[in-house]
């Protein structure tokens, strides 16, 4: 009889033991990760040049600034909705106080009628012991009834008005929540693009990062430039009025201030925040965003530019500076560069406005 013992044989050891197998897996993963930095020919992927990084970073900054202007607009609308909501709540509270007083008055009338047995005033006068005063009393009762009817109608009207206010408040609250959700979305978009720009910049040497920070601006100015003629070189056109001159002077005084998205000063700015602050210092109230600021004055052509004019860039009107003459402006460029002087031809020109 043949005995089958195959099932009881000791299993053959795998050529790679547990530890060895784990080592092999680790090596394979490391190889896959290493392969990721090589191109299809097995050669290392070329490191982006500073010019390529600069182009990508500038694009990210432009996209972030466009998102920033939308964030500023949403923030402005959220603030307006919040103010309207507070106004509606205050008005509803005042109306509620008046309604409570009117209800108290009606309650007093009802209590008096109840104590009098609930009889109609005319009936009570007809049954009075002194019918000679009936006509006089009937006239008084009619006036009292008219006042009571008016009081009831007044209460009903106030209730309707309060309900209308509460309905308006619900609409404003929904609008506010929408704006707040938009703000969160815009903020994530901005931070994502700025984080990507920082990641790209971290691949460069300090010297290469400094070159990108210069952004190709000609005639880069520091705070010491504020001592110069704020209207530019001798003999060039002057600002059209004292307010424009004051705005230009303010911008010069802020040279070197950091760019911070959403900031309106006094120590940090984004592009539209600098423009708004400059004209606010001159007593002029401008809208918050670039796409609103371009409509806040009289449009002028590039050939007509005077110091103090607002110059706008890109097809979406997402960047703005203050013209200072000589083909230059002061602007808040991006997180890699502070408030500075720059030529207006370094970005696609979209239009100009003279604040009036």
Give the amount of beta strand, in percent: 5-15%
What is the helix content? 40-55%
Rg (CA only):
38 Å
Cα distance, first to last residue? 115 Å
3D architecture notes:
The protein has 356 residues and is α+β, with helices and mostly antiparallel strands. It folds into two domains: 50-201, Orthogonal Bundle (Helix Hairpins), CATH 1.10.287; 217-355, endopeptidase domain like (from Nostoc punctiforme) (endopeptidase fold (from Nostoc punctiforme)), CATH 3.90.1720.10. It contains eight helices and six strands. Strand 3 (319-325) and strand 4 (328-331) form a beta hairpin. The longest helix is centred in the middle third of the chain and has 68 residues, at 134-201.
Short description:
The chain is of the alpha+beta class. It is built from 8 helices and 6 strands. Strands 1-6-2-3-4-5 form a 6-stranded antiparallel beta sheet.
Features:
356 residues; alpha+beta; Helix Hairpins; endopeptidase fold (from Nostoc punctiforme); 2 domains; six-stranded antiparallel beta sheet; 8 helices; disordered N terminus
Ordered list of secondary-structure elements with their pairings:
Elements: H1 18-35, H2 50-115, H3 121-126, H4 134-201, H5 206-214, H6 242-253, H7 271-281, H8 290-293, E1 297-300, E2 310-313, E3 319-325, E4 328-331, E5 340-343, E6 349-355
Antiparallel strand pairs: 1-6, 2-3, 2-6, 3-4, 4-5
Helix pairs in contact: 2-4, 6-7
